[in-house]
Amino acid sequence: xxxxxxxxxxxxxxxxxxxxxxxxxxxxxxxxxxxxxxxxxxxxxxxxxxxxxxxxxxxxxxxxxxxxxxxxxxxxxxxxxxxxxxxxxxxxxxxxxxxxxxxxxxxxxxxxxxxxxxxxxxxxxxx
Length: 127
What we know:
CATH topology: Endonuclease, Chain A
Number of helices: 5
Radius of gyration: 14 Å
Strand content: 15-25%
Strand order of the largest sheet: 1-2-3-4
Number of domains: 1
Low-confidence stretches: none
């Protein structure tokens, strides 16, 4: 199945490039396990502009967004903004998996098993 094109705001491309060059430790750690189709052969992108947002990781074939919630998500109003952002992107057909920054750093194998199980469940639904 060919991935669907999700429109994005071209003005976000430069910011996404900066974010890729200035990733958090948890983003780097997870990226090192997702890149080069290491996760069940699926291609993931990082700091990907989608709609009017930049998301942490995206797998076009699965329409899967993986977000890492770090300290920036703890400021006042951030949770509500995240929920609005997620709803808008879900309306485009995207599916979300979220992880806490600390979990990525301390429980990487668990994080990877959650992602892998999500993929297995999704593959079963499609067949």
